Amino acid sequence: MPEIRNIAIIAHVDHGKTTLVDGLLRQAGTWAAHQEVRDRVMDVLDLERERGITILSKCTAITLNGTRINIVDTPGHADFGAEVERVLSMVDAALLLVDASEGPLPQTRFVLRKALDAGLKMIVCINKIDRPDQRVEEVVQEIYDLFIDLGADDQQIEFPLLYACAKEGTCGESPDQQQDLLPLFETIIQHTPRPRGHPDLDLQFLVTQLDHDPYVGRLAIGRIQQGTLKVRDEVGLVGLDGKVRRVKINLLFIHQGLKRVKVSQASAGEIVAIAGIESLTIGDTLTNLERPAPLPRLRVDEPTIGVLFSANDSPLAGLSGRYVTARAIRERLEKELLHNVALRMEDTEQRDVVRIYGRGELQLSILIEQMRRESFEMCISRPEVLRRQEAGRTLEPYELATLDFPDIHTGVVNRKMVRRKGILLDVRPEGQNRVRQTYRIPTRGLIGFRGEFLNDTRGEGLMSTVFDGYDDDAGFITFRQTGSLVADRPGKANTYALFHLQPRGRLFIGPNTDVYEGMIVGENTRGNDMNVNVTRGRQLTNFRSAGAEEKLLLSPPIRHSLESALEYIAEDELVEITPAALRLRKKILPANQRSLVRGPRSKHKSNPRRKNSHPRGVHGRPVSRQA
């Protein structure tokens, strides 16, 4: 049996984790010299490659000089914190990767705190030292300050320090002395502790991940804490209820490069995948049948933000999706809950509507996008935070938001953050006329802010957030100041109608777009909603006017992404998700059953000249204010 080292690579988003793993695999001889391999091979999901982020943690393994190194690539975003917490229970050390220019960011603090809390041995690597704006010495000092701030012990803070350029596949003990990645291999082998646990003791195996193979079915992935696993052995499975059930090990795999290799047995310290056990979940323990000794179940941070999932009931429902019923949506969400312990599902008063809570908007939008690509149709509500009641106090989640932007936009950014109840904690210049500000702000204050921030900073702003616990309710927070332009009848949008609606606000659709009553077609410049007719065409008569033949020029419509759509909608609006389209709509579609006035009635002044101050519907009748 070769010696084993288990290590996880942790970093902020886009600091080079997956690229570094590519270099390690390449220089370890995982692929033949003639073999063509794409970049970022660990990003197996299409969404990961499109967005350039790691969503699911993946395991790989290399063998060097008789030592087997199991490497775990972890997500860098706080919204996928449950993935980080699970995989850290499988390793004995962590390699912290930090950008030589950006330095430690909020997500760096998040993943490092998890690693330190787990008592892991730390190795630090400064990546991207070839950047022209690198500031290596300052970043090293910031890393030491971060370790001290997070309460690292003496052993953890005495970490080995390396400098690398993962893109070029080079590394060294100083920025000026670069060679291949051999110094990193040697540092991992030397400073990563050997796995604890003896192969002759009673079996303990904690299920930390679930996967699916089209040939062998469900796979349970985890680390053997102690004992030995053998194919065809009968062991005990301890679930959430604490009962011990007899199960059989049909197949056993270890990781080698990007493949899983069948083995007949594996001992303590090895990360393995087990096939043949269908009725298990994350957190279950495989143990000795006669002397069961279950391990503590995994604990992850509670979700903080949620949305409502409901079946799509618009007039255009079912045109492109395959799964459109509430039952199909619920079954898909229940399947997701089996391997994503960071999500929580709650029933609502409506039988066909369920509420899903997650760690953040990004995690929820990834789930929605995956379902959309699986041909699901659904409607999603505006994100809402999960509040708590403690000792008669109402508590809500808060975030630490770090904003990096050109300093000429400081005024507008400060005004926006103060309006959303943000408190400025730190300001520091970043060079090149940029500034970095850190705010503590309620989580709901950040809903819809990312798009405004990018617009205010002309697309040059960078924003990172991390959960900072619960605190007192911040009270009323100003939301969107504008109303919506809502279609008042079905049909196809007409260039003539859209041209004359442009002065009213910004449009979300173009000509020949199918619309229906209650569909949001644009943003009103004023605070109230406006019912509009986007199907109205030019009146064809024998009479001609001076401007009858003028050319109608339309501004490009705003195309919302899934994240921006969720941030934009109000409480009485929904995002309609289909495989072919993404639409914004009102919860109540008929125009004569919803109000055009936003907010409670008491917040709007009535017109003293009118006895009836109710807004008028499309036919002149007063409409109710139910939302």
What is the CATH architecture annotation of the largest domain?
A: 3-Layer(aba) Sandwich
Oligomer: single chain
Q: What structural category arises from helix and sheet content?
A: alpha+beta
How many independent structural domains? 4
Provide the β-strand percentage band: 25-35%
Question: What is the number of helices?
Answer: 13
Helix content: 10-25%
Output the CATH class name of the largest domain.
Alpha Beta
Instruction: Give average pLDDT, whole number.
Output: 82
Radius of gyration: 28 Å
CATH topology of the largest domain: Rossmann fold
The overall strand count is 36
Unreliable segments of 5+ consecutive residues: 600-627
Sum up the overall morphology in one term: globular
Main sheet: strands, sense, barrel = 11 strands, mixed
Description:
The protein is α+β, with helices and mostly antiparallel strands. The protein has four domains: 3-191, Rossmann fold; 204-287, Translation factors (Elongation Factor Tu (Ef-tu), domain 3), CATH 2.40.30; 389-472, Alpha-Beta Plaits; 484-565 and 576-603, bipa protein (OB fold (Dihydrolipoamide Acetyltransferase, E2P)). Strands 19, 20, 21, 22, 23, 29, 31, 33, 34, 35 and 36 form an eleven-stranded mixed β-sheet that branches. An eight-stranded mixed β-sheet has the order 2-3-1-4-5-6-7-8, sandwiched between helices. The radius of gyration is 28 Å and the shape is globular. 40% of the residues are buried.
